[in-house]
Amino acid sequence: MKIPFTKMHGIGNNYIYIDAITHEFDASTFNQLAIDVSNVNTGIGSDGLIVIHPSDVADVGMRIFNKDGSEGQSCGNGLRCTAKYVYENHLVSSSVFRIETKAGIVTVEVYGERECIEQVTVDLGTPLLNRSQIPMHGPDDNRVIAEEFQVASQTLQVTALFLGNPNAVFFVDEIEGAPLHEVGAIVTEDPRFPDRVNVGFVEILSRNEMNYRVWERGSGITEACGTGASAAVVAAILNGYIERGIDVTVHLSGGDLCIKWADDDHVWMTGPAETTIQGVFHWKRS
Length: 286
Ligand SMILES: N[C@@H](CCC[C@H](N)C(=O)O)C(=O)O
Known about the structure:
Layout: E1 2-10, E2 13-19, H1 30-38, E3 48-53, E4 60-66, E5 71-72, H2 76-88, E6 96-101, E7 104-113, E8 116-123, E9 144-151, E10 154-163, E11 165-171, H3 180-187, E12 198-206, E13 209-216, E14 220-221, H4 226-238, E15 248-252, E16 255-261, E17 267-272, E18 274-282
The structure holds ligand LBFN2T5F.
Residues 13, 64, 66, 72, 75-78, 165, 198, 216-219, 222, 225-228 line the site of ligand LBFN2T5F.
């Protein structure tokens, strides 16, 4: 089967994009297709698959499938790339438009020439802070802020919230020593998070700057996670490290994002989107 695709990335978080507005695909194959395109040896190599599809409730729709074939609810870097793709390909007319995701409808704004969008702002909406909304098991339905959290033999402090996807955030003294493998790989599968979780590590650099690294649910370590970095800014504000309502620069392995938790409760993320390859994947279904 021949699958036309575009490979795009947002600060290194790379996905294979298929356009289900222009082409027809069998939606029941998306989980397996994500596994197969992500394989660097027998596929294309990516952090997963993003399907751009028609929407009845917004201008376009987007679905995100991780490397292991599981479906996430949203994707911050993927939303910026989807916005670039649909605007450059004249699938929307205005530079401000709405994208449907499994986590709700988000508004995006693209900046640049019609054929060459470079930066995109995404209104990721309102973070969900109560335990049951993350979801996370526990004794009550309060917010999870610097809560003691046992991982193997260590006692850590976790701040958890839902912003597009479930996120657990740990603050560390130095990002280079962040235990991505030792803690990230374990916590993402921890039964206290019934839907699994994205695991982020944050080093606070100043009142408006932080380093962030991530172990993504379903994909492992990636160069960047837009919803995760946005959740990390909210977590830093909840812990009193950063003030609300200001632009925060988040340094990720693949580049920087500008993120603000505004006074109206919405979280705004701005960053680049890039196209790297267009082609046809010759898919031998496994
Ligand atoms: N990389 C993404 C998030 C992708 C989904 C995530 N792994 C999940 O399943 O929750 C981003 O940029 O937000």
